[in-house]
Amino acid sequence: MKKLALTIIATTVILGSMQTVSANQERRPPPPSFEQMDSDGNGELSKDEIKGPILDQFDELDADGNGTLSESEWPDAPPPPAQ
Questions:
Q1: How many CB atoms lie within 10 A of CB 55?
Q2: Cα(37)–Cα(33) distance, rounded to whole angstroms?
Q3: What pLDDT tens digit does each residue of the chain (83 aa) get?
Q4: What pLDDT, on the 0 to 100 scale, is given for residue 30?
Q5: Could you tell me the CA-to-CA distances from 19 to 7, 12, 13, 15, 62 in Å, in that order?
Q6: Of 26, 42, 48, 61, which sees the most CB atoms within 10 A?
Q7: How many Å apart are CA 50 and CA 47, to the nearest integer?
């Protein structure tokens, strides 16, 4: 009987944790697209147009060194911020 009770409690705790993680992931909005960040519509992103952790990677992503990011230099999905 104790073994059954412990199994039920453990299962409840695990499932509860999984739901919390899932709920937190659902609340996070998707990262903005290249087009959404290109506020002046010139087809390139300047440092002024970029927000968030990807700004720290700007110089690495700017492969041609022209001070802007073209759509080909833009990563598909920036990594989520570390928590």
A1: 14
A2: 6
A3: 677 666 777 677 777 666 655 555 678 888 788 899 999 999 999 999 998 888 999 999 999 999 999 999 988 755 555 55
A4: 81
A5: 18, 11, 10, 6, 39
A6: 61
A7: 5
User: Which of 21, 73, 29 lies closest to 52 in space, CA to CA?
Assistant: 29
Tell me how far apart the alpha carbons of residues 70 and 58 are, in angstroms, rounded to a whole number.
Answer: 11
CA distance 21 to 42: 39
Q: What is the reported pLDDT for 43? A: 94
The tokens for 18 are 């999984």
User: Which residue has tokens 């519509």?
Assistant: 41
Contact assessment for residue 43 and residue 70, using Cβ atoms and an 8 Å cutoff: yes
| Three-class DSSP category at 69 | strand
Whole-model pTM over 0.70: no
